[in-house]
Amino acid sequence: MKKLVILDRDGVINFHSAQFIKSPAEWKPIPGSPEAIGRFSQAGWRVVVATNQSGVARGLFTMETLGAIHARMRQVVAEAGGRIDAIFCCPHGPEDGCACRKPLPGMLHDIAQRLDVRLDGVPLVGDSLRDLRAAAAARCAPWLVLTGKGRKTWETSGTSGELPAGTQVRDDLAAVADTLLKAAP
Fold it and tell me: Of 8, 127, 131, 172, which residue is the catalytic one?
């Protein structure tokens, strides 16, 4: 069975924007991230993206535009020798009360059900406390990258003991890939 890694999008694969990524042209990869996904793919791992996209609920962009943004992301990753096997997203706003918006684990449970996998110990890479809390709630292994909002997350939550137990911290997705691919049998 293939190994699985779950990645948050904004701040992990591409640069985060407080104004939201609203078009394919605004989507800019973090250097080394597409190549890291390429290394996972070439080593036989399945790569799944799990992303909150409340810009849809806020009316900042449509699901069609989100699809175009994700097509651009997939193209850039493919050019780096990688493949994103699936993208799961929560299009709801923070006040919508859905179960799929991280930090709740609903989106991750959906991934487990649709891919017919157990999530125990599956690495989930994120740059925010909500990503890590969702990972812990779904029994994934939380990995914090210091890109995107990650450095601020580390400075506020890492030093106060708020990070879920066992959270691994790395500089970026490339460093996560280095560690996980070296450890893989």
Answer: 8
- Per DSSP bridges, beta strands 123-126 and 86-90 are unpaired
How is residue 158 written in tokens?
Answer: 């890492």
Cα(22)–Cα(14) distance, rounded to whole angstroms? 13
Give the three-class secondary structure for 64: helix
Question: Could you tell me if 148 and 165 are in contact, meaning their C-beta atoms sit under 8 angstroms apart?
Answer: no
Among 10, 127, 131, 172, the active-site one is 10
Extract the tokens encoding 3.
């190994």
Cα separation, 26 vs 36, in Å, equals 21
| pLDDT tens digits along 28-78 | 999 999 999 999 999 999 999 999 999 999 999 999 999 999 999 999 999
Q: Which two tokens stand for residue 164?
A: 């879920």
Distance of CA 47 to the CA centre of its chain: 10
What is the rounded distance in angstroms from the CA atom of residue 120 to the CA atom of residue 30? 28
Catalytic site residue 8? yes
83: Cα within 13 Å, side-chain hemisphere: 9
Q: Are 148 and 130 in contact (CB under 8 A)?
A: no
- Is 10 one of the catalytic residues? yes
Whole-number pLDDT of residue 60 = 96
Residue 96 · residue 144 · CB < 8 Å: no
